[in-house]
Design goal:
The protein is globular. The chain starts with a helix and ends in a 5-residue tail after the last helix. The protein contains 3 helices and 6 strands, in the order ααββββββα. The protein is of the alpha+beta class. The mean pLDDT is 86.
């Protein structure tokens, strides 16, 4: 499996790939479900090994820990999905849709 960091680096640094419309799905501890956020930009902090920021279409930056990311969609199609366990399967059924 390709690490999520590799996917995010490709979105940032590959103009042909990064030009799509992206949505990131992450597990929200408080809501106890997967939350999907359409985003315009990924911000990879220098030296940040545990999290990154996405800037949504609303202009708001959100910090997301790498380990909480469950999926990435490009132009409506899943391009990366973390292997799921039973907890994730239940959450996926309750996931927010963009």
């Amino acid at each position: 499996m390709v690490p999520i960091q590799d996917i995010l680096h490709r979105i940032v640094w590959d103009p042909g790939f990064g030009g799509g419309s992206f949505v990131i799905g992450y597990r929200d501890r408080r809501r106890e479900r997967i939350v999907r956020i359409p985003f315009e930009r990924v911000v990879l902090g220098e030296g940040s090994r545990f999290s990154f920021d996405v800037v949504g279409r609303d202009g708001v930056a959100r910090m997301i820990p790498y380990h909480r990311v469950r999926e990435v969609l490009r132009d409506g199609e899943v391009i990366w999905r973390r292997r799921v366990d039973s907890e994730d399967k239940a959450e996926d059924a309750r996931a927010d849709r963009p």
